[in-house]
UniProtKB/TrEMBL annotation:
Domain Integrase catalytic: start-end pairs: 121-285
Pfam families named in the record: HTH_21 (PF13276), rve (PF00665), rve_2 (PF13333)
Protein name per Swiss-Prot or TrEMBL: Transposase
Entry-linked SUPFAM superfamilies: Ribonuclease H-like
Length: 305
């Protein structure tokens, strides 16, 4: 209606309203709403800007649950359904993971027992590490990625890449993890599948020297090493996402930006109370220190009369 009168002002407002049986008060209310949007519309516009910023900061990865969680962290009180609606109207959506495995079993290898039995939980950091290999295609050929993930915080504690998917690659990622974490001998389980890289003499000997118990699920079974497989789904969906890397160096840079620059430090997870892996570990150590301090404080005996 307002657009019609704007296009044909010569018709006059009152004659048109009479012909259409529309009260003049209704028309002028429409006009006011166009010129001065209602509070809810203004709020929707502000929220949409914030949602677009959060979505862009995540690299287009976050769907409505994580966007809603970030808004709450920033002190913005808004309903989940409203966030879903505004994202839909703004044509914003998260991404969904896909899976593909690459390890192969050596039929002659001695296998470690399954100490995890699909229970990927841990009472604290450096109690259960899961590890696996995947391949990133590049213009120079495949880039193999080995990573170790802590089951407690889901943090990627180490990752390495190579043009070859061999025992040296997985050993290199283990050495990096041992150098960057405080591991108590006899307290840590290292879980992998039956891939020949993980049954190699090099790796099993290093685990034994470090006092780490080796554990293995079955090869090609995503449930027996689900936490490691889940990382590959995230990497392939949120980092690679159909990108074509001309060189291995280009792929390495993308992995660094994703794993160290986003996943560990900034990517919030529902299972961690919408904290990032690093934030979750920091909270654990802070709570632990607070509890220890409380236990050390002297207790004064009650006064008796």
């Amino acid at each position: 209606m307002t657009a019609l009168l704007d296009e044909h002002p010569h018709l006059g407002v009152e004659p048109v309203l009479r012909e259409l049986h529309i009260a003049s008060s209704t028309y002028y209310r429409w006009r006011r709403q166009e010129q001065e949007p209602c509070e809810r519309r203004r709020r929707d516009a502000e929220l949409t800007e914030q949602i677009q910023r959060i979505h862009a900061d995540s690299g287009g990865i976050y769907g409505s649950p994580r966007v809603h969680a970030v808004l709450r962290r920033e002190g913005v009180h808004v309903g989940r359904k409203r966030v879903e609606r505004l994202m839909r109207e703004a044509d914003l959506a998260g991404v969904s993971p896909r899976r593909k495995g690459f390890t192969r079993r050596d039929p002659k290898a001695t296998l470690a027992p399954d100490l995890v039995n699909r229970d990927f939980t841990a009472p604290g950091p450096n109690r259960l590490w899961v590890t696996d290999l995947t391949m990133i295609p590049t213009g120079e050929g495949p880039l193999w990625l080995s990573a170790i993930r802590d089951a407690f915080s889901r943090r990627v504690v180490a990752w390495e890449t190579s043009a070859c998917a061999d025992a040296d690659l997985v050993l290199s990622s283990l050495e990096y993890a041992l150098a960057s974490r405080e591991v108590e001998p006899g307290k840590l389980v290292h879980h992998a599948d039956h891939g020949c890289q993980y049954t190699s003499i090099k790796l099993t000997t290093r685990l034994l020297r470090a006092g780490i118990e080796a554990s293995m699920g079955s090869v090609g079974d995503s449930y027996d090493n689900a936490l490691a497989e889940n990382l590959w789904m995230l990497v392939k969906t949120e980092c690679v996402r159909g990108r074509v890397f001309a060189t291995r160096a280009e792929a390495n840079l993308a992995l660094f930006e994703y794993i160290d620059g986003f996943y560990n430090s900034r990517r919030i997870q529902q299972r961690l109370g919408y904290l990032s892996p690093i934030e979750f570990e920091e909270k654990h150590y802070t709570d632990q220190a607070t509890a220890e301090q409380a236990n050390l404080e002297p207790r004064h005996p009650a006064l008796t009369s």
